[in-house]
Amino acid sequence: MMLRAALLSVLFCSVNNYVIQDFLEKTEESSGNSIDDDDFSVSTLLEKANQNAGKVPGDPLVLYGDIAVPSGLQNADPCTQRGCLWPKASDGNVYVPYRIGSEFSRRERNTIVQGLRSFALSTCIRFTPLNRQQDFVDIRSLSGCFSFVGRRGRNQTVSLSRQGCVFHQIIQHELLHALGFDHEQTRSDRDQHVRILLQNVIRGMEFNFRIIQTNNLNTPYDYNSVMHYSRFAFTRNNQPTIIPIPDTNVAIGRATEMSPTDILRVNRLYRCRRRGMEG
Ligand SMILES: [Zn+2]
Q1: pTM tops 0.90
Q2: For residue 158, how far is its CA from the centre of ligand 1 (angstroms)?
Q3: 174 is catalytic
Q4: pLDDT digits (tens, 9 = 90+) for 207-217
């Protein structure tokens, strides 16, 4: 099934990254909830960059917007089936080896490394250059932005296409997938916090809005999570697909970096124990 049929087109191949980053910073403060305000949300960036994700021979199958799934296991949550946390070292840190493909420019590579390092500032996750470890994240520029959920074993691809994915929030978003996190709007209690309007969703994309029996780690539902899609994600008619409840005016899915709750979740999932981390 070709999942990525008729998504919005153009823009990213032709626009300079820095123009976009600039625009991101400028629109961040916007308080409106119009579809234009969603232009540079995480989910819009993903939708635009992922038009061809998973269609290229050799790429993993990409479902749920930007989550890669092993063939044949499309309905299973790999994490619940076999445990997908990265192992904790005796010093309390969680070392996640990475390799960055040589296709990235020096500047892109720096942006990626900065994204990796951001985890060390607030969590016990330590992304470290690959040094003969067996399991690692293999950061490549394939057709779109996507990641598997959790540790898969051996080299697992995190794709950050040079066309539209090398942004701080996208890097954090995809690595949070690799650490084991799903999209916020699919979490188990989401119906208490958002209403999904399937009638406005692109036909065939409804599966992006399924509910997963997530472990929410006693953290509140977070509209500002970098894992939350925006109000118009996968819209087919410019009408909202996700509406926050009961206050429908709250901004959703507009994070430009991990929220405090995203950070808290990483620390709880991996039982990080450093000063002040559990608040
Ligand atoms: Zn995602």
Answers
A1: no
A2: 11
A3: yes
A4: 889 998 888 88
> How far is 161 from 59, CA to CA, in rounded Å?
12
- Please tell me the distance between residue 49's alpha carbon and the centre of ligand 1 in angstroms: 12
d(CA 261, CA 239): 28
Query: Any idea which fold 17-269 has?
Result: Collagenase (Catalytic Domain) (3.40.390)
Query: Catalytic pick from 28, 29, 47, 174?
Result: 174
Binding site per annotation, positions: 173, 177, 183
Q: Residue for token digits 């890669």?
A: 68
Q: What is the tens place of the pLDDT at every residue in 164-193?
A: 999 999 999 999 999 999 999 998 999 999
Q: How far is the CA of 91 from the centre of ligand 1 (A)?
A: 30
- In degrees, to the nearest 5, what angle opens at C-alpha 210 toward C-alphas 208 and 212? 115
3-state secondary structure of 254: coil
Helix, strand or coil, per DSSP, at residue 69: strand
Please report, in range form, the residues annotated as the binding site for Zn(2+): 173, 177, 183
Q: Is 220 helix (H, G, I), strand (E, B) or coil?
A: coil
Half-sphere exposure of 106 (CA within 13 A, CB side): 0
Q: What does the domain layout of the chain look like in residue ranges?
A: 17-269
